[in-house]
Amino acid sequence: MVETPSTRAAGPSKVAPPFRGAEVEVVVPVEACQEYEFTLRVVTPAGGTLVTVPGLLLPALPDIPDYVPPPLATVVQVALAGGKLGLTTQPSSPVPASCLPRYLEAVDAFANRLESAANNAEGETAAAEAVLGRAQDLVEVTQEKVLARQGCVCSSPRLVVEGRVYLYQGQSEGRPYYTWDQEGRSLPSPPAAAARTKRAAFIGRVDGGGTTTTRRPWNYSAQGGGRGAWGGSSSSRGAQGGSRGPVGGRVSASSIGGRLGPGLPPSPPPASHLYWSPSSRSWLVSPTLGAPEAQATLASQPATTSLCPADQAEVWRTRQARTRSGRTVAWADMPGAAPSCAPDLAP
After folding, report:
1. How many domains does the chain have?
2. Least confident stretch, 87-96, 122-131, 305-314, 316-325
3. Same structural domain, 219 and 328
4. What's residue 9's pLDDT?
5. Final residue of a domain: which of 266, 286, 310?
6. What does the alpha-carbon distance between residue 13 and residue 25 come to, in Å, rounded to a whole number?
7. What is the SS3 assignment for 56?
8. 3-state DSSP call for residue 107?
9. Which residues, at least 6 apart from 268, have a Cβ–Cβ distance to it below 8 Å?
């Protein structure tokens, strides 16, 4: 709706010293949803003009960059009159009825600003992930050389166990140990998501005419692309073979929380470690590093002679319930559960 400029004078408003702080606030009474142009004058105690600043604009409501519109349900009311639906304001609406068209435009403009800010954050996150990915590559190249000097047949710092990537962390009981890469630091980047098509940010005139604004606000479609959350990461140079196939995708905490519904965010899954147990003379996978075999969920064959967990091709074992109550468990061979040697990174 095109509005006629207000003919009512706003002000003059005066603020007298002393001023406290670096900012001086001048409150000017104005008509709702009207555009104004102000002139600021700084005068001396004697009444002389010290400086004049003309052209201070109070823009239309949708063009105010820091305006946060109140929730739609607290402002808009749908009414049925003469068999037709119409919009009006709620009795307790903080927005007057005369401002309803401008308010609806402001809601769209605010949504657009939020999307632009989110897209900017995506780009910054992707850039940070690219830096971290390159650093992780260099770390893994160094770790590969360390494991090779220790005599590991599989000197890769990345092992895949039941579809999970385990990263080399250091030494435990004189042998290397690995921890599940929950953060996906060593995963290849998925292809960049296709850019989203942004819908129009302004409503049309309520009387069926043209657009309500002749130009978009200055911050419409601010800098930021519509890439996916992982579109720019470059962690780990290309994987060889198919060992990374089962772990190629990523699931964000926000997507998990969305499926679980509102409330507290879901607790992260417990950590998992792959390490050598001297008491059982076997490699174990357990939530606690150094835990005995009784607390492990996966284990190599007893009395194994491998220096590193993926050095030998053997069938590993998993704990399975032998009774319906689950109180009695026993180790059972699990073909395909043994760690696989992930491809080494080129220096």
Report:
1. 2
2. 316-325
3. no
4. 65
5. 266
6. 11
7. strand
8. helix
9. 182, 253
CB neighbour list of residue 330: distance below 8 Å, 6 or more residues apart: 319, 320, 322
| Rounded Cα–Cα distance for residues 150 and 147 (Å) | 5
Dump pLDDT digits (tens) for 199-220: 444 444 444 444 444 344 444 4
Is the same domain home to 160 and 121? no
Predicted confidence (pLDDT) per residue in 141-161, tens digit? 899 999 999 999 999 999 999
Whether residue 242 is contained in a domain is answered as yes
Q: How many angstroms separate the CA atoms of 48 and 221, rounded? A: 45
Structural contact between residues 116 and 124, judged by C-beta atoms closer than 8 angstroms: no
Report yes or no on 30 lying in a domain. no
Identify whether residues 286 and 337 lie together within a single domain.
yes
The answer to whether residues 173 and 308 belong to one domain is yes
Question: Is there a domain that residue 178 lies in?
Answer: yes
Same domain, 176 and 323: yes
Query: 107 is in which domain, residue-wise?
Result: 62-68+88-149+190-266
Q: Is residue 37 part of a domain?
A: no
How would DSSP label each residue in 247-273? G-----HHHHHHHH-SSSPPPPPPP-E
204 and 347 in a single domain? The answer is no
Query: Cα 23–217–73 angle (5° rounding)?
Result: 85
* Contact (CB, 8 A) for 264 and 277: no
**pTM check: above 0.85:** no
What is the Cα–Cα distance from 288 to 277, expressed in whole angstroms?
A: 12
How far apart CA 245 and CA 250 sit, in angstroms, is: 12
Counting other chains too, the contacts that 341-344 makes at CB distance below 8 Å and 24 or more residues apart are: 341/154, 341/156, 341/159, 341/243, 341/310, 342/156, 342/158, 342/159, 342/160, 342/165, 342/239, 342/243, 342/244, 343/156, 343/158, 343/239, 343/240, 343/241, 343/243, 344/144, 344/155, 344/156
Tell me what percent of the residues of the chain surpass a pLDDT of 70: 71
Note whether 158 and 299 are same-domain residues: yes
- Considering the domain architecture, whether residues 212 and 343 belong to the same structural domain is answered as no
